[in-house]
Write a structure and sequence with these properties.
Layout (H helix, E strand, L loop, with lengths): L1 H20 L3 H21 L3 H25 L6 H8 L2 H24 L12 H8 L4 H45 L5
Length: 187
C-alpha cells in the first residue's frame, strides 16, 4: 500500500510541475486533471474514499469543465480554430495519458489484491462533512462562493470584450475586402 501511495505522489508531483511549465493552457489543464486524479488516489489509499470521490467529482470533473469553458470563452479569433485542432492531436495527449495509465494500473492493483484496509478512525459520512463545513467554517464557504461568483462575472466580461473586438476587426477586414473588390483601395 505504501508503494501505491508513493507512486501516486510522484505522479501528482510530476503532473503538477508539468502544469506550471506548460505554455499552452489546454495542455496545462490536461496535466492538472491528472494531478487531481493522483491526489484522489492518494486519498483512496489513505482510507478516505469519500474525499477521493469528492476530489474526482468536484475538482477533476466540475471545476475542470469550468476551466475549459473559460478557455473557450476567451476565444482569440479566427486563427484559434486551427490551434484548437492542433491541441487535440495525439502528441498533446501522450504525457497525460501515460500518467493516467499509471494511476489506473495502481487502482487495478489495489482492487484486484483486495488490500485496502479500513481507516482507523472509521468512515466519514457526507452529513459529517456538511456539518463541519457549514458549522465553524460557514464564513469561509460563503467567501469562497463569492470569490467563484466574482471570477465567473470577470470571465464573462473579459470574453464579451474580446468578442466585441473580434467582431469589429472582422467588420474592418470585410470592409477592406469590399473596397479591394470594387477597386476603391487608397481613394
Amino acid at each position: 500500500m505504501n508503494t501505491v501511495f508513493y507512486i501516486s505522489a510522484a505522479v501528482a508531483l510530476i503532473s503538477t510541475v508539468m502544469v506550471i511549465t506548460r505554455v499552452n493552457a489546454i495542455h496545462a489543464l490536461l496535466y492538472l486533471i491528472v494531478s487531481l486524479l493522483a491526489v484522489a488516489v492518494i486519498f483512496f489509499t489513505l482510507g478516505a474514499a469519500f474525499a477521493a470521490a469528492l476530489e474526482v467529482i468536484i475538482y477533476a470533473g466540475a471545476i475542470m469543465v469550468l476551466f475549459v469553458f473559460v478557455v473557450m470563452l476567451l476565444n482569440l479569433g479566427p486563427g484559434s480554430n486551427a490551434q484548437e485542432s492542433q491541441w487535440l492531436s495525439l502528441k498533446a495527449w501522450i504525457g497525460p495519458a501515460i500518467l493516467a495509465l499509471v494511476l489506473v494500473s495502481e487502482l487495478t492493483f489495489i482492487i484486484a489484491r483486495g488490500s485496502l484496509q479500513a481507516p482507523a478512525a472509521g468512515p466519514v459520512e457526507p452529513k459529517q462533512v456538511g456539518v463541519a463545513l457549514f458549522g465553524p467554517y460557514l464564513l469561509g464557504v460563503e467567501l469562497t462562493a463569492l470569490l467563484l461568483l466574482a471570477g465567473m462575472i470577470g470571465a464573462y466580461h473579459l470574453g464579451r470584450e474580446w468578442g466585441v473586438e473580434i467582431e469589429r476587426e472582422g467588420e474592418r477586414e470585410s470592409g477592406r475586402a469590399r473596397e479591394w473588390e470594387s477597386g476603391r483601395v487608397g481613394e
